[in-house]
Design a protein that fits this description.
This protein has 426 residues and is an alpha+beta fold. 14% of the residues lie in helices and 28% in strands. The chain contains 6 helices and 16 strands.
């Protein structure tokens, strides 16, 4: 993959507290609000490691195909990069993918991080869905469909068909009222999308291709935050002053907490807002904060300055600290500032928290190139690779196994445990 882009953008989805979501191709519409809980599920990094458990060892073509599919979908749509794609070691960070015969499934968002078997994919559908095993092209199409859906879960999106504003139901699902989202702090990122890759009802029609809403929702979460999709943050500032009066002792005063909301889009210059705290007409701390978008990603700028004098109007700057760094959903910057003059040991600190706020679905609807991005993603879909390894074999349940003839159903290979010269092999 080797991309250096910041983060990937995910569609109008649901991010939920659900620990595991089973698969059925679709796209999404609700997102779990990570700022509402300390166990939020959105990744705070643009690079997410992926590894294969040993159950995938016999499927080199399928593994390579899945990597290419994810690169052409989620990575293409948003600023996220799934990296590594090698063999797992126990409990290493990232997405651990097993390959088995049970249903595809994945833990949601960062709940999957480092979890052995956190995602399961199916490469041989003989037991789960024999129709997918009809031929190689069909099998790889099913793999694509399921992989895109499950990696959507890994990014934090849950099932679109369980939205409260859904306009349809389908045979595969009939969600109970208690299962409908938003719930558990989830939020809806876009309007309901019946074709979403996270929607079970789209399983028959969506073969693992992102829709315009999928792309818009992904970008709202992971960026790039441009083309009509801006960013909104709540900024909370706390300050404190520790005053050392030498022979007269010292006192500690913790400052007031202020909260403000800022919104910014690509190309805009973030407004710098300064909060100040002066508890005892001597030491004063100023905290200047701003959010700017740099190369489509939000960056926090915080400057904490300590002033001393005979009143709160003094401009005698003693020390200052500045931080500029990328932020994601929830970010905290702390500064400690000290006046080291021999006659004073006054100190100040500041804590500034940045938390994402979603302005939906207006932001997703304003994306100017999400439709073209979805089309480009579909056009870049990897071709099904030619067979370089034997097709998966499933023992034939018949006592007549020696050729000719081969009585096994199409797509299955008769396997005999008896010498080939014997009849009635088991």
């Amino acid at each position: 993959m080797g991309k250096t882009r910041a983060w990937l953008a995910v569609m109008a989805l649901v991010v939920g507290f659900a620990m595991v979501a089973e698969v059925a191709p679709a796209h999404a519409g609700t997102l779990q609000q990570p700022l509402a809980t300390v166990t939020g599920v959105i990744w705070n990094t643009p690079t997410i490691p992926v590894c294969w458990e040993s159950t995938a060892d016999d499927f080199p073509d399928e593994r390579e195909f899945v990597e290419a599919v994810i690169e052409s979908t989620w990575e293409s749509a948003a600023d996220i990069d799934f990296v590594q794609w090698d063999s797992c070691t126990p409990n290493e960070p990232g997405v651990h993918v097993t390959v088995g015969q049970d249903r595809p499934r994945a833990h949601v968002g960062t709940n999957i991080d480092g979890r052995n078997g956190g995602m399961n994919l199916v490469f041989d559908y003989a037991t789960l869905n024999p129709t997918c095993n009809r031929d190689r092209d069909t099998r790889f199409s099913c793999i694509r469909r399921d992989a895109v859906h499950e990696f959507g879960h890994a990014l934090g999106f849950v099932h679109e068909h369980r939205r409260v504003d859904r306009t349809e139901t389908c045979d595969e699902i009939e969600a109970e009222a208690s299962e409908l989202v938003p719930r558990h702090g989830a939020i809806l990122l876009t309007d309901y999308d019946q074709d979403s890759v996270m929607n079970y009802c789209a399983a028959r029609t969506n073969g693992g291709f992102l829709t315009e809403s999928d792309v818009a929702g992904a970008r709202m979460v992971y960026g790039p935050w441009d083309n009509g999709i801006g960013q909104t943050f709540d900024i909370t500032t706390e300050a404190g002053v520790w005053e050392d009066d030498g022979w007269f002792g010292s006192q500690v005063t913790y400052g007031r907490i202020t909260t403000r909301r800022v919104s910014i889009a690509e190309g805009e210059v973030g407004e710098i807002v300064t909060d100040e705290f002066c508890p005892h007409d001597e030491a004063r701390v100023e905290v200047a904060t701003a959010v700017v978008l740099t190369d489509g990603r939000p960056n926090a700028s915080v400057t904490t300055s300590l002033f001393e004098g005979m009143s709160c109007d003094n401009r005698d700057l003693e020390a200052t600290v500045t931080t500029n760094e990328p932020i994601s959903f929830s970010w905290r910057i702390r500064h400690d500032v000290t006046n080291d003059e021999w006659y004073s040991n006054d100190r100040a600190h500041s804590i500034v928290e940045f938390q994402r706020v979603f302005d939906v679905p207006a932001a997703a609807a304003s994306c100017t190139d999400c439709a073209s991005s979805a089309s480009a993603s579909a056009a870049a879909a990897p071709v099904i690779p030619p067979a370089t390894t034997p097709a998966p074999t499933v023992p034939c349940k018949t006592k007549v196994c020696d050729p000719p003839p081969q009585p096994c159903p199409k797509g299955r290979i008769c396997v005999s445990t008896s010498p080939p010269t014997l009849k009635g092999g088991k």
